[in-house]
Amino acid sequence: MIGDAVRELLVNDATLSGIIGKRMFPQMIPQGTGMPVIAYSIANTQPKSCKVNGEYLDEVDISLLIFSKNYGETEQIGQRVRKVIDDYSGTVKGKELSISYNGEKDNASEQAKLYGKSQSYKVFYKH
After folding, report:
1. Do 26 and 36 meet the contact criterion of CB atoms below 8 Å apart?
2. What is the C-alpha to C-alpha distance for residues 122 and 114, in angstroms, rounded to an integer?
3. How far lies 116's CA from each of 56, 64, 107, 111, in Å?
4. 6, 99 in Cβ contact below 8 A?
5. Whole-angstrom distance, CA of residue 22 vs CA of residue 14
6. Phi-psi label, residue 21: left if phi above 0, alpha if psi -120 to 50, beta otherwise
7. DSSP states of the chain as a string?
8. From which domain of life does this come (predicted)?
9. What do you get for the CA distance between the two ends of the chain, in Å?
10. What are 39-96's pLDDT values in tens digits?
């Protein structure tokens, strides 16, 4: 799964793991999880009809939701996430990836009293 590969890149970054630890989950954040935290989801997958070196190339849009009790921390995490994965090209968990940043927006949860940021990335991978 592409989400697992992106998670692997992020939780293995020493700076980021010093802030979020291993608190990065697919789609939903388990109840009772400490802050800050990141959730990720696949927004769209576009199969490409071309082959690259005998393998098919897919284009995947992935969204990351970053939450913290502190706005500054949310910004710090967002900047670090972007530094780690924007323009990344390499192999993770057996998948050859190329990642590019698509944009972001603030996404607070008033009900939970959390500051949030939503980031979007495009991932190309061979399979």
Report:
1. no
2. 26
3. 35, 10, 4, 12
4. yes
5. 11
6. left
7. -HHHHHHHHHHT-HHHHHHHTT-EEESSPPTT--SSEEEEEEEEEEEEEEEETTEEEEEEEEEEEEEESSHHHHHHHHHHHHHHHTT-EEEETTEEEEEEEEEEEE--BTTTTBEEEEEEEEEEEE-
8. Bacteria
9. 11
10. 999 998 887 766 666 677 889 999 999 999 999 999 999 999 999 999 999 999 888 8
98 neighbors 19 (Cβ within 8 angstroms): no
Q: Which residues contact 102 (CB under 8 A, 6 or more apart)?
A: 61, 120, 121, 122
